[in-house]
Amino acid sequence: MGRCTRAVLFKNNLKFNLEQIRKFVEPQTKICIAVKADGYGHNALLTAKLAHETGGIDYFAVARPDEGFELRNAGFEEHILLLSPCVPEDFESLFEYKITPLVFGEEYISLMAQAAKKVYGNSDKKADVFLAVDTGMGRIGCYPEEAGVQAKMIADSGVLNQAGTISHFAVSDSLSKENQEFTKKQFEAFKLAVENIKKQGLTPGICSCSASAALLNNTDMHFDMVRPGIITYGYYPDEITESYLKSVKKDFEVKPVMALETQVVAIRHFPKGKSVSYGRTWTAPEDTDIAVLPIGYADGLLRRFSPGLEVTINGKKYPVVGRICMDQCMVNIGKNNKNVKLFDKVLIFGPKESGALTTAEDLAKIGKTISYEIFTSISKRVERVVK
Fold first, then answer.
1. 254 CB-side CA count, 13 A
2. Predicted confidence (pLDDT) per residue in 174-226, tens digit
3. DSSP per residue over 319-356, as a string?
4. Selection from 385, 378, 376 nearest residue 35 by Cα
5. CA within 20 to 30 Å of 83's CA: 109, 206, 327, 360, which one?
6. Which residues form the catalytic set?
7. What is the pLDDT of residues 162-176, one digit of tens each?
8. CA 12 – CA 4 distance, rounded (Å)
9. How many helices, marked H, and strands, marked E, lie in the chain?
């Protein structure tokens, strides 16, 4: 607290996005909202609260056990899906908090079953798990040809219930012919896994393989549940842009949720030839004024954003100059600029209604990254304020 640098969250935009997602998919399709990494830096509890109020949301997806514990402790009763493997020390707590983990591999399934037995004892209760299948992402999961055998391991445990089967696409956010073909191959591999489970006389449970990109661009791949991530927070997944969707006659609009803002805390007069910041990478080409902002890479304004980053002050863009420091950065506002005054608000990025002329996607292009990294890089010392 006490810093003027803050992330403002526009809750009406978040609610709008949730409603758009619900309208876009078929009524029977379940929705799992990704709230991992503190809701992509947007505040997981706020996202979960609005999702609960909006309705039609079946699962929340987290990446760490403590993210799930936080939701349960806040009173949320929706299903919670843990997308990343964890260590045995966490297994019992998962079942105590009714969090559904992904499982694969004989040893992992066996240890998970042992933990479930400790929690449920001799009762008839079973612990829900999802079988993870690696169809081409190369991170976690059994191979499609192993899915039937591993589903049988789950069933034979006597204490685990296969509530679902899940996979993840590697390049569904790309429009290249090669990558679209790879996505189709992944989908076929996932269907093979599901069939292998059924051949064992078992049910695969809720089948899910589509995150934001496939949700929008591959509606034939929705299966039983979709897992929207970045579109929840108002941005499109890489090449699956709003303009592309319009070109293929798909009506889907989202609104950015977060604005990152700060204030001018100093205005310095710079003569021609004076340098600024570490490394002296920028020198004033003429007499000018420099505005100092109390935001730096410790807040999430990554060092690599300069040169290139422009911020918005009173409806006009100004370039950040010199290297971004841990706690501060500097902006060239020009000589005797009456548009910029001490303590004026500065917008780094945000939706149109925030007054920003730059989006998180613009920052991502400068930094050769994606909007996901922009949001999750914004540190805990940046206060989140709901508007």
1. 25
2. 999 999 999 999 999 999 999 999 999 999 999 999 999 999 999 999 999 99
3. EEES---SS-EEEE--TT-TT--TT-EEEEE--GGGT-
4. 376
5. 360
6. 36, 278
7. 999 999 999 999 999
8. 23
9. 12, 20
